[in-house]
Design brief:
- This protein is mainly alpha-helical.
- It folds into two domains: 33 residues, no CATH class; 71 residues, AhpD-like (Up-down Bundle), CATH 1.20.1290.10.
- It contains seven helices and no strands.
Length: 107
């Protein structure tokens, strides 16, 4: 597994492998259920993560969006869009998490 995954996530997957594999299959089916391309899907999921103020989900979806071809500017815009809906503190927190991911990926 990639080194950036939280220990609790890895531990859960190891403890409940059948559940983890079923969840993975569901995630693939949901992603494939509509007309959105992978990049757009990842940007939408990033927006949902920002709205939820979910640190791990923001980090994960920043990585996945960039890997799917999103630019840093596009990722930043998705985070910035949270400002008027989710609020300043949540947006700044998500922006910080994004910056930490980008810094780690570049090093």
């Amino acid at each position: 597994m990639p080194e950036h995954l939280p220990d609790v996530y890895v531990g859960f997957r190891e403890r409940f492998p059948d559940v983890a594999h079923t969840q993975d299959a569901l995630a693939r089916a949901v992603d494939a259920a509509g007309p959105l391309d992978e990049k757009t899907t990842r940007l939408v999921k990033l927006g949902i993560a920002v709205g939820s103020q979910a640190d791990g989900a923001v980090r994960s979806n920043v990585r996945k969006a960039l890997a799917a071809g999103a630019t840093l500017d596009e990722v930043e815009q998705v985070i910035l869009l949270g400002l008027t809906t989710r609020g300043f503190p949540a947006t700044v927190a998500a922006w910080q998490w994004m910056n930490e991911v980008v810094a780690t990926e570049r090093s």
